[in-house]
Backbone:
């Protein structure tokens, strides 16, 4: 792989991280958060998914599985700055830290 391709790949990786971090910063970290993924779809458009663990109350097991809890289609500029999102970003309710 030549140097130019490696540099472009590294820049693309940084944009993935930047787009994902901006989305998470805008909406907050949801309860049972597992991970966030961002995929470059076309042009300057991205699909960003927030994965959360789903509680399995039906079974008596310690295994957990994650599902996509929130999904956004975002447009970013050439530097990776998010310009708009569908749906629009709204804060995700943070888990309650107070006990009653």
Residues:
């Amino acid at each position: 792989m030549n140097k130019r391709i490696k540099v472009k790949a590294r820049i693309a990786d940084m944009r993935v991280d930047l787009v994902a971090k901006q989305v998470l910063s805008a909406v907050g970290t949801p309860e049972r958060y597992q991970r966030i993924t961002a995929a470059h779809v076309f042009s300057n458009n991205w699909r960003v998914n927030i994965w959360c663990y789903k509680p399995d109350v039906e079974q008596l097991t310690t295994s957990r599985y994650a599902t996509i809890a929130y999904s956004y289609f975002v447009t970013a500029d050439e530097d990776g700055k998010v310009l708009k999102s569908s749906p629009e970003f709204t804060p995700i309710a943070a888990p309650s830290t107070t006990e009653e």
